[in-house]
């Protein structure tokens, strides 16, 4: 397997084993074409859009703004529909993070640039300032959303880092299990697990091909 990865032009630090369809590995789909053409042929035949993703995964063609909504759905209803299709464990993971995010934007608020705040106000969003965010270098104003979380904020061009049901739905569509797109990081337990794995296999970084 290492020989195949090296033929694909990868260093040991770039070698990974994971789902090829989460948000952070889709740009590596083309490696399947190089590493195992037989598997790639089967994958293209069974997974709709796999070839598209392998070609455009590094471009803006699969960007957030270009995600479209199925007819008859709002982003909230589509999110609920997708949640119902997921295994219980994965669904509960998303629900927990979504509820945490909704509570955060209702009670604490996220730090936003003044340009973003003005644009939200100009478009009639119900928001209010809630002090200063200590998590931003420039001490940006914290903004709380009053009332319901917006279904989408496509009319806000200065930032995508604001709450909406579309943003939550996007995490599911991209298999973003950690909801990094929504600003979540790894939990302590998850980070500890990553650190243990890195420590265990760090010697691979020093291995030269052919040695």
Layout of helices and strands:
Layout: H1 2-7, H2 30-35, H3 37-46, H4 50-56, H5 75-85, H6 88-107, E1 110-112, H7 114-122, E2 127-132, E3 141-145, H8 165-173, H9 188-201
Antiparallel strand pairs: 1-3, 2-3
- Poorly predicted regions are 4-8, 56-62, 207-211
Strand content: 5-15%
**Strand order, sheet with most strands:** 1-3-2
**Helix/strand structural class:** mainly alpha
Query: Could you give the order of the helices and strands?
Result: HHHHHHEHEEHH
Radius of gyration: 20 Å
Q: Biggest β-sheet, characterized?
A: 3 strands, antiparallel
On the 0 to 100 scale, the average pLDDT is 76
Distance between the termini: 16 Å
Kindly state the percentage of residues in helix.
40-55%
Number of E-state strands: 3
Please work out how many helical segments DSSP would assign: 9
Shape: globular
How would you describe this structure to a colleague?
By secondary structure, the protein is mainly α. 44% of the residues lie in helices and 7% in strands. It has nine helices and three strands; from the N terminus they run ααααααβαββαα. The chain has helices at 2-7, 30-35, 37-46, 50-56, 75-85, 88-107, 114-122, 165-173, 188-201, and strands spanning 110-112, 127-132, 141-145. It has a three-stranded antiparallel sheet with strand order 1-3-2. Strand 2 and strand 3 (141-145) form a beta hairpin. Helix 5 runs parallel beside helix 8 (165-173). Residues 4-8, 56-62 and 207-211 have low confidence and may be disordered.
């Amino acid at each position: 397997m290492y020989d195949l990865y090296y033929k694909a032009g990868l260093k040991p630090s770039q070698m990974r084993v994971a789902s090829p369809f989460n948000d952070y590995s889709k740009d590596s789909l083309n490696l399947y074409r190089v590493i195992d053409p037989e598997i790639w042929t089967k994958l293209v035949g069974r997974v709709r859009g796999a070839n598209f993703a392998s070609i455009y995964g590094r471009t803006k063609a699969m960007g957030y703004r270009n995600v479209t909504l199925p007819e008859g759905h709002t982003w909230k209803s589509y999110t609920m529909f997708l949640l119902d299709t997921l295994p219980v464990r994965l669904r509960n993971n998303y629900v927990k993070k979504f509820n945490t995010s909704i509570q955060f934007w209702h009670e604490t608020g996220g730090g936003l640039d003044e340009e973003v705040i003005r644009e939200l106000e100009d478009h009639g969003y119900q928001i209010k300032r809630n002090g200063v965010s200590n998590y931003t270098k420039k001490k940006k104003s914290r903004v709380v959303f009053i009332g319901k979380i917006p279904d989408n904020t496509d009319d806000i061009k200065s930032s995508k880092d604001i709450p909406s049901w579309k943003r939550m739905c996007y995490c599911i569509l991209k298999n973003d299990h950690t909801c990094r797109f929504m600003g979540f990081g790894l939990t302590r337990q998850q980070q500890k697990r990553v650190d243990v794995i890195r420590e265990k296999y760090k010697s691979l970084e020093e291995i030269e091909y052919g040695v």
